[in-house]
Amino acid sequence: MYDAMLGMVLSKLALLPAALAPVFVLFAYFAIVLDRRRENSPSKEDTQVGLKLAILGLSLSAVGLVAAGVNGLLAFILGGFKGGAQPIKDAIAPLVTGAGVAFALFTVILPRTNNATMREPERMMLGLMTVTYGFMAIIMTYLFINGLFNSQPWGMTSSFLATLLVNGAVGFLSLNRLGQASGWVQPVRPAAPMPPAGYPPQQGGGYPPQQGGGYPPQGGGGYPPR
Predict the structure, then answer these.
(1) What are the CA-CA distances from residue 208 to residues 45, 173, 203, 205, 217 (Å)?
(2) Which is nearest to 114 in space by CA: 126, 102, 125, 122?
(3) pLDDT tens by residue, 41-59
């Protein structure tokens, strides 16, 4: 009973960014208004800031629903399929609702805006997601390792693991997209060193070294005397 309650509470933590959606919209709009006071601010030419912030705020809620549903389902699987079919039923509603809303927002509505060229609101949303989900992933990593070393019940430890995996995945994906939107540079692998000129060293201008201008070595211009 306690493990099931813990898993339910941890799955609800994935809804934290969704709860922060109204705060995000207000703060981001205020920050952009202040930024527009700069002489060379690129946001001065963005006439769709409010529209994009509203769409992205709803997107935060949709992503939070999907993360909560996946977290509950994964905790049920890792915990040994305990609790009957109820955990699956509890995960279906947020998964279907969040996935449907996110799909509509990201593939139908957001592309109709100028987000492809004016991405400052999107970068703000991705930054919030990266910090929030990344922070929860770090905390769950600590709780999971602590549970292993202290031999806590697997039902509790598996809930920490499920929350770690879900929040870590969302945090990584949002960080990767934030880096792409910010134009980060991919690391370049160093080229393999070139071999020095004349490698391998040769003797006599050929291989194998020759004596007397032929092979096998000749004496007197013919075969060995009989």
Answers:
(1) 74, 58, 8, 9, 12
(2) 122
(3) 888 888 999 999 999 999 9
**Alpha-carbon gap, residue 92 to 97, rounded angstroms:** 8
Give the start-to-end residue ranges of the domains of the chain: 2-182
Segment 5-19, tens digit of pLDDT? 665 666 666 677 778
pTM for the predicted model, two decimal places: 0.76
User: Computed from CA positions of residues 92, 177, 174, 79, in that sequence, does the dihedral angle turn out positive or negative?
Assistant: positive
Continuous H helices in the chain:
2-13, 16-19, 21-35, 49-78, 86-104, 120-149, 154-182
* Closest alpha carbon to 41 in 132, 118, 137: 118
- CA–CA dist 215, 218 (Å, integer): 7
Q: How far is CA 26 from the centre of its chain?
A: 26
